[in-house]
Specification:
The complex is a heterodimer of chains A (186) and B (340). Chain A is mainly alpha-helical. Chain A has five helices and two strands. In chain A, 67% of the residues lie in helices and 3% in strands. The two termini of chain A are 20 Å apart. Chain B has a single domain, classed as Catalase core domain (Catalase HpII,  Chain A, domain 1), CATH 2.40.180. The chains are: A mainly alpha (186), B alpha+beta (340).
C-alpha cells in the first residue's frame, strides 16, 4: 500500500463544505435565540434544515474516514501532539453527530416539528417531556461551545502547521502540494 | 490573529452583538424581576390544564388546506391562565385572562394558539413593549407606577389608543367560560397558493350575567374552582370565529381593530371536556408558541408575533432547565406567594 500525503478530493470537499456549514450554524444558533425580530424565524427554520443536512454530511464523512486511507502526520510531529490531534479529531466527529442529534431530539421532546427546507417533516421520536427538553437544550448549547473551542484549536493547529512549521499538514487538506513535503525523500 | 478574531466574533455574537435593541433574554429577565418562580412560565404563570376537542364544520376549508379545518373532531390540550409571573396570584386580581390551545397530536398538523381577552396590542413591536413595561413599572421610591413616566410613554405612543379604549370598556366577567379570547395578532390562511389574512376569537356559548364574580372573592383560585365545577355539569363550549381582513386592513399591525363589518366565518366549536391542576395535566410541558402552525396557515410579518415566539422559547428553556435540575417545586409554596 502506498502512503498518501493528501486527503481524497471527496474528503477535502466535504471538510471545507462542513467547515463553512458548521461555523454558519453556530453563528445562526447564537444569534437566533436572542433576536425578537421577524428574521429570527427564517433563521430558525434554516438552522433546522441545514442542521439535518449537516447530520447527513457527517454520516457520509464518517464512512469516507473509515473506508479511505488517511494521510499520516509527519514523523516530525511529536508523539504527544499526535495523540492530541487524534483526540481532537475524535471529539470533532463526536460533536458533528451530537449537535444535530441533540437538536432534533430536543425539538422532539418539546413537541416541535423539524421541517427540512419545507419538503418534509421529521417524525417526533420522543413524547413531549419538559425535563428531557431541559437536558437536551442545555446539552445542545454546551456542545456548541465545546465545538467552537475545538474548531478554534483545530484552526490554530492547522495554521501553525501551515505557516510556521510548513510541514505539509495544512496542505493535506487544502490539496496544494507543499514544496517541502514534495521533495524527493533521500 | 485569525483564530483570535473568530473567537472574539463568537463571543460577541453570543453576547448580543448585532441585535437591535432588547433581546429575548433581557425581556424574560424583566419578567422575572430578579425573583423567578423556578419551574413556572415567566408570563401567565398561574393557570390550569384543559382537555377537549375542536369540532370543525368545514366552512374554513375554502380558505385553508389545514386538515383540522375539515369536518370532524381533533383532540386538543389547552390551558387557561391569567397574566403575570406569579403562579399563586389570585385569579380575580389579574387584568388579562387567556385561553391557549395545542390542537392535533402530530407536529406536522399541529396548531397552537394563545388567545387573550384584549383584542389588540398597545404597541407594534417588542422594543416599544419593553419600553411600556418599564414605564408602567412601580417606582422604587414610592412603590407605585410613576404617572409622569406613564403619561410620557402614552404621549409618545398614540398607537396605544385602541388598546386603551378597549381597556376602558372592558369588564371582567364572572367566569373564564364567559370571556371572549382573541388571537390579537393576524395570520394567513393558505390554500392553493392564495392567502387570506385573518384574526380569530373564541366566543363563548355561555352567556355572562353581567354582574361579575359573586362568590368568595378572597379565594385565590376562585375562577379556577368555578370553571371546574361548571365542567362537572356540561362541557364548556366556544365558537372559533375567524374575521377576514380586506385590502384596507394592515395585517402586520396588531394595534388596530378591524372594522366590525368584516366578514366572519365560524370554523367550528372548541369543546372543553375536562380540566386539571397544571402540575398534573399535560399542558405544563407545552410551550404555547403561537407560531406552531399547520400547513395551510402562515405567520404575518407582525413584529409582536415573532417576538412572542422568541420570548416564549426563552421562558420555556429556563423552566425546562429548572425542571431538569429539579429546582422546581411540584406545588407553589406559601412562601412563593409571600414573595410577591
Amino acid at each position: 500500500m502506498t502512503t498518501v500525503t493528501t486527503y481524497s478530493l471527496a474528503a477535502r470537499i466535504i471538510h471545507w463544505a462542513m467547515a463553512l456549514l458548521l461555523i454558519s450554524l453556530l453563528f445562526a444558533g447564537l444569534a437566533m435565540v436572542q433576536s425578537l425580530e421577524p428574521w429570527h424565524l427564517t433563521l430558525l427554520s434554516l438552522h433546522k434544515s441545514f442542521g439535518v443536512l449537516a447530520l447527513v454530511l457527517a454520516v457520509i464523512r464518517l464512512v469516507l474516514r473509515i473506508v479511505q486511507q488517511q494521510p499520516d502526520l509527519p514523523a516530525s510531529v511529536p508523539h504527544w501532539q499526535q495523540r492530541i490531534a487524534q483526540l481532537s479529531h475524535f471529539f470533532l466527529y463526536a460533536a458533528m453527530f451530537a449537535m444535530p442529534l441533540s437538536g432534533y431530539l430536543m425539538q422532539s421532546a418539546a413537541g416541535r416539528p423539524v421541517s427540512v427546507f419545507g419538503l418534509f417533516t421529521l417524525p417526533n421520536i420522543t413524547s413531549v417531556n419538559m425535563e428531557l427538553y431541559g437536558f437536551l437544550r442545555e446539552m445542545h448549547g454546551l456542545i456548541a461551545w465545546g465545538l467552537i473551542l475545538l474548531v478554534l484549536v483545530h484552526m490554530g493547529a492547522a495554521l501553525h502547521h501551515g505557516l510556521i512549521k510548513r510541514d505539509g499538514v495544512l496542505e493535506s487538506m487544502t490539496g496544494q502540494p507543499s514544496p517541502e513535503a514534495d521533495k524527493p525523500k533521500d | 490573529m485569525a483564530v483570535g478574531g473568530l473567537a472574539l466574533l463568537f463571543y460577541s455574537i453570543a453576547n448580543g452583538f448585532g441585535q437591535r435593541g432588547v433581546t429575548a433574554q433581557q425581556f424574560v429577565d424583566f419578567q422575572e424581576g430578579g425573583n423567578p418562580h423556578l419551574g413556572f412560565r415567566r408570563a401567565h404563570a398561574k393557570g390550569f390544564c384543559l382537555a377537549g376537542e375542536f369540532v370543525a364544520n368545514g366552512d374554513l376549508t375554502a380558505y385553508s388546506s389545514a386538515t383540522l379545518f375539515q369536518p370532524g373532531s381533533t383532540q386538543f390540550v389547552g390551558r387557561i391562565s391569567v397574566g403575570g409571573g406569579n403562579p399563586t396570584a389570585p385569579d380575580l386580581a389579574a387584568g388579562v385572562r387567556s385561553l391557549a390551545l395545542s390542537i392535533g397530536d402530530r407536529p406536522s398538523v399541529r396548531w397552537q394558539t394563545a388567545m387573550n381577552t384584549p383584542p389588540v396590542m398597545p404597541v407594534r413591536n417588542a422594543h416599544d413593549f419593553y419600553a411600556q413595561m418599564n414605564a408602567f413599572r412601580p417606582d422604587p421610591e414610592t412603590g407605585r407606577p410613576n404617572p409622569e413616566r406613564i403619561a410620557a410613554f402614552l404621549e409618545a405612543h398614540p398607537e396605544t389608543q385602541a388598546a386603551r379604549e378597549w381597556q376602558a370598556s372592558y369588564t371582567a366577567t364572572e367566569s373564564y367560560a364567559t370571556e371572549t379570547y382573541n388571537s390579537i395578532n393576524a395570520f394567513y390562511l393558505v390554500k392553493d397558493g392564495r392567502r387570506q389574512a385573518v384574526r380569530w376569537a373564541a366566543v363563548p356559548h355561555a352567556e355572562s350575567h353581567g354582574r361579575g364574580f359573586e362568590g368568595d372573592r378572597d379565594d385565590a383560585n376562585a375562577l379556577q374552582n368555578e370553571f371546574m365545577a361548571r365542567l362537572e355539569n356540561a362541557p364548556v363550549v366556544f365558537d372559533l370565529v375567524f374575521t377576514l381582513a380586506t385590502a384596507a386592513d394592515n395585517e402586520n399591525d396588531p394595534t388596530v381593530r378591524w372594522p366590525a363589518d368584516r366578514q366572519q366565518v365560524v370554523a367550528g366549536q372548541i369543546v372543553i371536556h375536562s380540566a386539571s391542576d397544571q402540575s398534573e395535566g399535560l399542558c405544563n410541558g407545552i410551550n404555547f408558541d403561537p407560531l406552531v402552525l399547520p400547513r395551510g396557515m402562515a405567520p404575518t410579518q407582525d413584529e409582536i408575533l415573532s417576538a412572542r415566539s422568541s420570548v416564549y422559547a426563552e421562558s420555556y428553556r429556563r423552566r425546562a432547565r429548572e425542571h431538569f435540575y429539579q429546582q422546581a417545586p411540584s406545588q407553589p409554596s406559601a412562601n412563593e406567594q409571600e414573595k410577591e
